[in-house]
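We both want to read C-alpha cells more fluently, so let's practise on a single case. Would you write everything just below, so we can both look at the same thing?
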Amino acid sequence: MLKKYHLRNYNFKLLFLVLAATIMGTLMINSADSSYLNKQIVGLVICLIGMITLSLIDYKFIRKFHSILYVINIILLLCVIFFGTSVNGAQRWLGSENFITIQPSEFTKIIMIICAAHFLADHKETINTFKTLAEYCVICAIPLILIVAQPDLSTTIDVFFILFMMLFVAGLSYKIIGIAFLCTIPLAGSFLWYIKQPNPLFLKDYQVQRILAFLYPEDYASTTQYQQDNSVMAIGSGQLFGKGLNNSTLATVKDANLISEQQTDFIFSVVGEELGFVGSVLLVVILGLIVLQCIGTARKASDNMGMLIATGVATLIGFQSFINIGVATSLLPNTGIPLPFISYGLSSLVSSCAAIGLVINVSLQRRKY
C-alpha cells in the first residue's frame, strides 16, 4: 500500500497551488457569509490531511478496490433518491442540516475517475471496438442516470465530460468522434426546439426557464436572469482592484442581498467585487496552473492508469471552473456547480482534495528518463 518515495519527487508545486486556492476560497467564503467559516476551516484541515495521506498511498493499490468503490457509489446515489434531503426542488443530499449533509454526486466524480481509468487501461488495445465502447457506456450510464434523477443536470454534464475526455485520451478514434459530432449538431437544434414546447419530458420547469433565460435574457431580466445579472454587476463594480475584503457597505451587491447563496455557486462574484480584475485573474491563474500541473503529471505518468487518473482530475478542475465562472459572468446558462477549492461545500472539497492526492501520487511514480 505504502511505497518508498523520494522527497525530491513530491509535487510541492501542486500542493502549494492547492493551498493557495483553498486559502483564497476560505477568505471569500468568510466575506460572503461568515457563518460558514468555522465549518469550512474544520473541513479544510481534514481534507488537506486526507489529501497528503492519500498522496502517499499507491494508486495501483487503490485500483484494486475499483469494484467496491463503484458499488458504494451506486448505493449512495440510490440512497439519495429514496432517503435524500430535498432543497429547492432538488434531492441531492444525505443527512440533516442540523448535523452534517453530504452530496454523493460530488464523490461520484473521483470514484468514476478511478473506475474509468481502470477500465480504459485494461482495454487499451480494444478501445475502439463496439464491445468495449458499449461496456464503457453502460458502466458510465448507471451513475449518470441516477444523478439526472435527483435532478442534477449540471453535475451530470460535468461527469459526462470528464469520462468522455478520459476516453478520448485513452485513444478513441477520430472517426468515431467525427460521427458523434455530426450527430450532435441536429440533436442540438432539435433540443432548442423541444424546450420551447409545453411541458417537455425529462426536464424540470426551472431547467427550462434557465435555458430560455440564457437565450432570451431580456424576457427574464426580473425573474430567472436576475441572479446572473446581479453577479455580472458585482464583478464589474469591483473594477481593477476591488472594494476590499469583507466590505460591508450597502454599495456592495453582497450586502444588499442581491445574490442568494453567494458563498456557493456564485462565489466568483464575491471575488470580482472585493478583489477586482486583478484578484479575479489571480484566481483564474491559480486554477489554470493546477490544471497544467495535472496535465504535466499525465504526460509523465508511469502507466496508462496514472495517465488517465491525472487526465480525469485535470478535466474535473478545468471544466468545472470554466462552467462556474461562465455562469457567474453570464456566458453560460445558470446552473449550480461549485468552483473547485473556492466555493463552500465540504463534499466538493473532499472530492477535489482526494483527486489532487491521487495526482500527486501519480507524479511520485512518474517515468524515469
About this structure: The radius of gyration is 21 Å. The first strand starts at residue 85 and ends at 87. The mean pLDDT is 88. The chain is about 65% helix and 5% strand.
